[in-house]
Design goal:
The protein has 80 residues and is an all-alpha fold. The chain has one domain. The chain contains two helices and no strands. The chain is rod-shaped and about 65 Å long. The two termini are 44 Å apart.
Length: 80
């Protein structure tokens, strides 16, 4: 290497294992977020079905929210 010239390679490129680990950690965080949202939605759904105050359409809408979150979690599991 010539003197006075900066090195073009400052950092070695990440190894494939590091990339896989980073991707896996990202996927796990996404799954955790969706799982927590699903858990909260299911708790709300359960409360709505037992309180006797909720309108049937509100309960149905909350059920659809739970279904959508469950599908999202399932799709994340398939990718992982």
């Amino acid at each position: 290497m010539g003197e006075g010239k900066p090195s073009l390679m400052r950092h070695p490129s990440p190894k494939p294992g590091h990339l896989l680990l980073a991707e896996g950690m990202k996927m796990a965080r996404e799954q955790s977020v969706v799982w927590n949202e699903l858990k909260a939605a299911l708790e709300k759904f359960q409360e709505m079905t037992t309180d006797g105050k909720s309108d049937i359409y509100e309960v149905a809408a909350q059920g659809r929210v739970c279904e959508a979150l469950a599908r999202e979690l399932e799709s994340l599991d398939k990718v992982a």
